[in-house]
Write the structure tokens for this entry.
Amino acid sequence: MRRRSEDTKALILAAARERFAADGYDRATIRAIAADAGIDPSMVMRYFGTKERLFAAAAEFDLELPDLTSVPGDDVGATLVAHFLDRWERDETLVILLRTAVTNEAVAERMRSIFSAQLVPVAAKISGDHAAARKRAALAASQILGMALCRYVLALPSLGTMTRQELVDWLGPVVQRYVASPA
């Protein structure tokens, strides 16, 4: 039975996500991903061309930022921190991206583009400060990504044992300042 091209691409992307998660970007190979998908490596190359393009497709990621228009102004930071904790804990793609971005420039660029494209408009809308939205988003991302690196990748014991609410209580006001307070 022949697969449709969309089914084959989906199969490759699923195998790639798992392989990148297990081996990291540098150690994952097209051959291993193809073997995991049960297809010939030439098919991976046919659909994606390069390992970098395959990774970019596999790492296509929606931060699923919440609509903050109904959130009271003073709760925006805490709401964002809680949201990101949920995203990190239910989907390993962000952890894979973060772990790999530390050593691979192409992946680091992917992370920058994901956060920039999705967080800058939120920062601009919340603060009304469109001129400084990039700076606001970068500062908020630094707190969120720093927490994620230390909690989920480096597994710092003190951070790893903090409850979700403790993290929201500590980081919420910091993110609040970055995205909503006057500069």
Notes: The CA atoms of residues 22 and 28 lie 8 Å apart. The mean pLDDT is 88. Residues 73-180 form one domain.
